[in-house]
């Protein structure tokens, strides 16, 4: 798919260009939070609860406070900490609002919850001092499974631990089920796992007496800026959040954590001494957000020819000890219920979703938010139904997928699907994987008594680039979905972009530069993109829901287009011609169709900034524009994955022989970046399907607290991936659809389906460890 | 003049508000370049020429290079240094373009010129290593006086040392002189002195492999950014100049110095290791720009009733060894010739000005640029003529000052004066000082044989806020005069301003905040102003020619006004009323005339950023605007000063008994700031008139190289100043005229006139030291 860099006057969009960030990142000059060294910097360590659920009867920090080179010991009862709590809000009537303290007071609710913090001259001293803090805990019964009755509620406000419940109900589900030829019913449980980025959480906070600067690996710097300002009672202008280079986020870093706020509160007390905390892996597994600890009770009715008639579901999501800020306990249940029916035509839909508090780490946004689990549930139903109806897994999907002719399609949850290219994705996936050849080989192997092979399929729709409409639901700190972008032509004719997007490795600097290069009409090489600093860019909602290429890209395109319009207006005046006849490409101004340029953008920029005496009447100096992109709706992205696996009869090992993913990213801005996103998300999906599992014991202790116990896929575990694009332009300025989450949606369903196809067994619990397969083989 | 802070709905303009910068500066949290501590920072010391003029036959840096913890020794012959020279450009045909090397090669041209640089782990080690550099000099004859014939030219390109010469010639000067009743002829010489800010020059340069960041006390960060990018062959977007808090500039820091460029070149070689140089006072006196080393040969014709008929002048300015970058050798001569006739009506004007190279430190812009000297020349002529015509010094000025009725008045140099309020300033000054009472007291003292007293006067026009027209002359790196400003209402309803202005202590954060507060309609306290960072603000030409309140303030006003328009448009839609009926003051929206607000700006800002689903059709999210202000012409500011002095017959001490200054700042944005500017500039003018003198010996050695020899006024030497305003609105959006330089224009002339008035002697050379007065008393 890779293309060589082409000449400057070719469009940048669609090309594989050298990534803007690579020179820096590949030569070791990336600048992550942990690289930040500031004068007089002090280091923080957090004391964390060793209990899943306990009362705190006493904390004695006397010894720690007098430890050598310790500059502060903080507990939740101190006024500055007690005054600040996180209260994630929701407009849902059923929502039970709870408080998350910055440092636990009175009670701890999960193992790993921050109880105290120490500031010392280095991290070692800080950790040593933690051991001198004496905490008396009175253990309470812990609840770790969301669908078992709790002995002791996590929050007094919710005696049954249910923080949020909502029922989607469209059509006549009981009647439709009653009239169905076949009703399939399943109970499916997905495994708690998490984003686990290469770079753990990290923050440096500095209070200069008036202003707070917070360097953070956050995915949402502007929102974090606003939230911190509100929590600390500061004007937003006095808070600056800087997300420098960030080593992976995956949603985990789209949360404002107690540790973040604690750092800022401590920085205020340390006046002028920056405080730094870099999370270690053990802390991360324990206390960063988890996800996908769900149970699906699902029942679907089908006609004899495989038409999906009705879906009745009950979804329980373990949201952990707290409603994560600002997303609430609703983030997974609402996404699960809103998109459970996926890309399939459905009129009768009833689904109750609930978020249940437990004594586990809070769950939060993680690549695909609930969808890897809900796609698994939906696709399992289809596979099951197909088997019982004597259809192929392929045909039952063909029968039910929404088609382009039905677009816009109002899903039973009321979300409006604007794609419809699901059948095309599926057909391309099965064609690429070689469906018929596979069947022949499967038969041959079966007959030869060789290891069995199986083929699995998954189709999914991904809601990307949330617009105003989709974001208007929950009572979040915001109800909108726009980003802003400023495009500046500098006096030398090169372009600086201040974009509201953030990057955790997705190459947004590159993507935005490609968009702006084409919008303005300059070579990609002449565009510099600055992101991640709330003092520079006007506004961005941040990196979540695959929104940035669509929304941040849309804003970049609009700002660049506005600047190009001014360039052409200025050129028309200076060259005494008509703006409509002019074009700007590769930084040169031409009369359309002519080879020889009239002049260069550098010449015009010089006039605009340095020789305004030559500016025509009515044209203001400068060449800059700031624009927002604020669509009503996002852009659904279609995807399908297919894989062939082989099962080793003797070991239960599941080997992936082929993996195909077809996605529709709309206009592909940079094939390499898009494929990188898809490949990475499939790898992460495979991790969730096969290896990653955060397991709590009954007392609420995390049994998988290191990477020895919590298994991650390495490059050796990720098969060669075949990635294909559809490239059907979406209805937005650039025609783009988001990518980056879709890949994670397939693997659970594909592998479960493939295992069924290979062995005839039905998988009900994830992950698909060798032990599970080996049991199935018995 | 001070007023207490008034309620929020009162206009901020015109009030004494608490300065934005004071909390920081007065509590020791100002952040100057020398406060900057970066990891791995290395320190620079410069080896400077001990000769005023010499050939360099050999430099041996071997020993220095192997000195302990020395990381680099650099000389001008190294390719990276030889490749970069400063060539200040001018469009004047007579201009002789010369090169200023970053580090001297072949030849040194003034004592103090940088010859080599050492980078070491601290400044002490770097200075120690300087002593190990062995330079063989072959001394050449030095020229230090611009109006004596040179033995050896400073630059081969200019054998007579004249780098620039221009003759202004309007009317029929010989004829007018021939027909005059009285011709007065004088030779006047002014003393070389300089800005000498409390904070010397300082810079930290960091190259990260792709980008250069230069922290500098510069007055012109955007221009410096552009110049550095051009000199180093970098895109402007890859160069960031940050002027943090700066402790005084006065023009001295409006120059790009060889040391600045050397730091940046060295930073590139040090890849990732920041290099820091903080000038010490000895270096500053030796090698920062000097000024006002001028000779005026002037001849003026008057009618019998004191009308100024003609002026014939020859002005020689010592421009030192180099055309200072980017201002050229023309900065003082052209200003001297362009404004010599000052606020006086004149038709016949001939003036030849020349900039002459000598073996002294380069002269550059310094508060008032040439005008303190040229006002001294002009006012001395008037005082002389008055005495000979038997008129009072007051009446001869009244006779000749331009009046408001003559506005716009085209001066004989073709500059267009838009003020005319000179007579008003003068009358108010003499009324305040008590002219008649003074005369009575003078007579009484004379008769009683007491110490004589004298009264001096000076009138001046100040060209402030250069517009396109005035700046279009010399072939500078720019030919325009605009600034840009971005005004952002944050989602919390408070305002952040990214202004292109810079501040060296003038309180620009405060001034801009007052302007924006009124333009948007919010309390002053809700406005935050960020300046000095080229990565934040779009554009500013910087601090020179008293331009920032006019130009930067104009841009702030326009951007704020644009934002207010959007606020009202949004309010009209949301509150279902007509925008024309609405006002926004104190952050509240009201129907005109009603007490109860409809809502607050915070509510509207929340909609604009966080609830765009509530935005009316056609209104884009956000509340931000970027505007330029780019006037054709600046705004002339009128001023008059009057003082009474007493001369101690026994010591020659000159004591100031009263000092009055009346200036017309147009609209006074902040009386305290304006008065601070005027008081500071008078103090600096007094220093130049009485104490400060940079003296070279014949070999080109600076004899006054420390503050023991170079005398500065302290608060004990500055009299109580009475400052009055006229406040005649100028023809620009805010009605403002610049202040900040005017004060320096008076003291030379006032004190010389007062001495004449007291003793009857004529002063021809400045400064007026006790020795000069004592000589006059003989």
Automatic annotation (TrEMBL), chains A, B:
Annotated signal peptide: none
Superkingdom, natural source: Bacteria
SMART domains to which the protein is assigned, alphabetical: Ald_Xan_dh_C
SUPFAM superfamilies recorded: CO dehydrogenase molybdoprotein N-domain-like, Molybdenum cofactor-binding domain
Entry keyword annotation includes Protein transport: no
Database matches in PANTHER family: ALDEHYDE OXIDASE 1-RELATED (PTHR11908:SF132), XANTHINE DEHYDROGENASE (PTHR11908)
Chain ranges of the Aldehyde oxidase/xanthine dehydrogenase a/b hammerhead domain: 27-141
Record's keyword terms, sorted: Molybdenum, Oxidoreductase
Official protein name in the record: Xanthine dehydrogenase family protein molybdopterin-binding subunit
A GO term for molecular function: oxidoreductase activity
